[in-house]
Amino acid sequence: MSQQQVEQGNGVSWRMILGIVVLVAAVVLIAQNSQDAPVHIFWMNVTMPLWVLLAITFVLGGLTGWLLKARRVKRAG
């Protein structure tokens, strides 16, 4: 499979495979951590299930990556 085919969507790119592997690893990590955990952020102290904290962290990390990529594409274009 040539690089041109991958760019045109005719095949599975290494980024998609890596993304699926990371997603599966995150889901397994989240599913295996259900105990409560204390969270201290700024002036707030809360206790929440660890899986909720991990899910929030995963979503915020993905959102940050998406926003930075969009900014990079906008600067390049």
TrEMBL record:
It holds the Pfam family LapA_dom. The keyword Transmembrane applies. The chain crosses the membrane at residues 12-30, 50-68. It comes from Cellulomonas fulva. Residues 32-68 form the Lipopolysaccharide assembly protein A domain. This is DUF1049 domain-containing protein. Keywords: Cell membrane, Membrane, Transmembrane, Transmembrane helix. It comes from the Bacteria. InterPro entries: LapA_dom.
